[in-house]
From TrEMBL:
Signal peptide: none
Gene expressing this chain: mdtP
UniProt xrefs under Gene3D superfamilies: Outer membrane efflux proteins (OEP) (2.20.200.10)
Originating organism: Escherichia coli
GO terms under cellular component: membrane
Name recorded for this polypeptide: Multidrug efflux transporter outer membrane subunit MdtP
PROSITE patterns cross-referenced by the UniProt entry: PROKAR_LIPOPROTEIN
Role, per record: Could be involved in resistance to puromycin, acriflavine and tetraphenylarsonium chloride.
InterPro entries with a match to the protein in the record: MdtP/NodT-like, OMP_efflux
């Protein structure tokens, strides 16, 4: 019996030490790290033209300093159903992104419930239908209370939730672009 325990102990120690030794790795001297560029040093090549170049500013009419034109465009923008729909789609996309992002946070819930039932003298709980204060029974009523607390956190090990949040943020950015395009077209 002792011989068998010693052989198991020896086997476990050999397996454990083999596992520990296999985790060791030969670390060679690595080359010096690359120099990081400062944000001021980063710029686009001269032959790259952004899509925004040549486009009018978002509120181009303000540069003209004409109060009558400002009032006319403000009235047009405030009365546009197309712009209102685009802004609603933008708000919906923002709320979807916020909802998905909230799913990655700590979730806490509390529960409280009180259930009071009248017990039949002919049913399964007939002993509780008696009025016997000495036994803790107060008549034909049965009261049950439940209190609970829940906390949970989604670890997102495979990045599914992170991808869904990124997609929702992309949809929100698309809705922002659509709203800007509608505003510009008016």
């Amino acid at each position: 019996m002792i011989n068998r325990q010693l052989s198991r102990l020896l086997l476990c120690s050999i397996l454990g030490s083999t596992t520990l030794i296999s985790g060791c790795a030969l670390v060679r001297k690595d080359s010096a790290p690359h120099q990081q560029l400062k944000p001021e040093q980063i710029k686009l090549a001269d032959d790259i033209h952004l899509a925004s170049s040549g486009w009018p500013q978002a509120q181009w009419w303000k540069q003209l300093n004409d109060p009558q034109l400002d009032a006319l465009i403000q009235r047009t923008l405030s009365g546009s159903h197309t712009l209102a729909e685009a802004k609603l789609r933008e708000e919906k996309a923002q709320s979807q992104a916020d909802l998905l992002d909230a799913g990655s946070q700590l979730q806490v819930a509390a529960l409280g419930m009180l259930n009071r039932q009248r017990v039949s003298a002919n049913g399964f709980l007939s002993p509780y239908s008696m009025d016997a204060p000495a036994l803790g029974m107060d008549g034909p009523y049965y009261t049950e209370a439940t209190v609970g607390l829940f906390a949970g956190l989604d670890l997102d090990l495979w990045g599914v939730h992170r991808s869904a949040v990124a997609a929702a943020i992309g949809a929100h950015n698309a809705a922002l672009a659509e709203t800007a395009a509608v505003e510009l077209s008016l």
